[in-house]
Write a structure and sequence with these properties.
By secondary structure, the chain is α/β, with parallel strands linked by helices. Helices cover 24% and strands 19% of the residues.
Length: 362
């Protein structure tokens, strides 16, 4: 394997801690998972840009929050759309009902389109009620491929004037068991692409993440690239039945000392729902749990998701005025400072400029 660094940052010095992860780009400011969103995140100081990966019918990895690019409700009207596919008469017959990770969904899915077909669609803001300003960009941007995102990160790393700052990528394998079941396994496609770009080992500016341990373990057999085990607040990974180790079968078990020790055998960090670090009670952030301390003791970094500036996502005590407006911005900086004080090593954020203003430029 090749040892690869980007910009002036050596592997031992990168990523800087705490690292700022542009969650789906700068998704509070541009429609998520578009090149415009990733470019804004880089401009605003993200150390990483974070694409969720799903495949096309012809096996190309693209960035979408879900493989469902438009979901229909019981009345047949869109209830969540990240593209304009429902308005495209030529694709009306591609609407399907599928069961993905145990959930039945009616809509349009990336795996039913070739890349060329997906490129004719245009992105839309996924949560327009909370981010109405982003709707002005509806119809402007294409669906981005992972290669295009890598190209952007590399070009930005070469051109940035801030002390040779490296920009990395933080891709997630979405629904890997499902895609493996339909012959579109994500893991080899992702590893092949990272290898082709010289980003296939621990020195690369990459974190690969997944909720499914088996997905990370498959990729670990091929690569020493940094990996992150994602952990939800309840339940367990969809691949639990395929796992032998009981400490990986539920998210609760993963956060025990035994679970963290097991995760440390295949990952360098855990990416956790933020309330697992700072619980919320009575509308206010509470004292930190022991998770950061326990994970660090196991040799794992802790990255929290997701820090968002709007009232809809903030504890009541940090909401801005009017407090009942979900789109109004609150005191995101206070939340960021609280997580830094709790000792986390990474921040998933929808507005990287907010985190960078607190963390500072390096």
């Amino acid at each position: 394997m090749r040892t690869t660094t980007t910009g002036s940052a050596a592997a031992c010095d990168w990523p800087p801690l705490p690292c700022v992860v542009g969650h789906r780009g700068a998704s509070a400011l541009r429609p998520e998972h578009t090149i415009a969103s990733y470019a804004k995140a880089i401009e605003d100081g993200a150390d990483f840009i974070e694409p969720d990966l799903v495949p096309t019918q012809d096996g190309v990895l693209v960035a979408r929050h879900e493989n469902a690019i438009c979901i229909l409700g019981a009345d047949g009207k869109p209830i969540e759309a990240t593209t304009d596919v429902a308005d495209r008469a030529e694709f009306a017959n591609r609407c399907r009902t599928k069961t993905i990770d145990g959930k039945t969904i009616c809509g349009w899915f990336t795996e039913d389109f070739t890349l060329a077909e997906l490129k004719t669609l245009r992105a839309r803001e996924r949560i327009p009620r909370i981010r109405p300003a982003n709707t002005r960009f509806d119809g402007q941007f294409e669906i981005a491929t992972l290669q295009e995102i890598i190209d952007l990160a590399k070009a930005s790393s070469q051109s940035t004037g801030r002390n040779g700052r490296t920009v990395g990528i933080y891709p997630e394998t979405k629904h890997p068991s499902y895609f493996r079941s339909i012959g579109l396994a994500l893991e080899d496609r992702l590893m092949d692409l990272l290898e082709a770009n010289g980003w296939s080992d621990r020195a690369a500016p990459v974190f690969v993440q997944s909720f499914e341990p088996s997905s990370l373990l498959r990729m670990r057999k091929r690569s020493s690239v940094r990996m992150v085990q994602l952990i939800e607040g309840a339940g367990g990974p969809f691949d639990a039945d395929a796992l032998d180790d009981p400490s990986l079968k539920t998210f609760g078990a993963m956060t025990t000392p035994a679970g963290l020790a097991q995760i440390a055998r295949h990952a360098q960090a855990i990416g956790v729902l933020k309330k697992l670090v700072l619980p919320v009670d009575g509308g206010a952030l509470q004292a930190p749990t022991t998770l950061v301390r326990d994970a660090n003791a196991a040799g794992l970094q802790v990255h929290v998701w997701t820090l968002r500036p709007e009232n809809a996502f903030l504890p009541d005590a940090l909401r801005g005025e009017p407090a009942d407006d979900p789109s109004a911005r609150g005191d995101a900086a206070a939340e960021i400072r609280a997580f830094l004080a709790a000792g986390v090593q990474g921040l998933f954020c929808d507005d990287p400029a907010e985190s960078r203003a607190v963390v500072g430029w390096r």
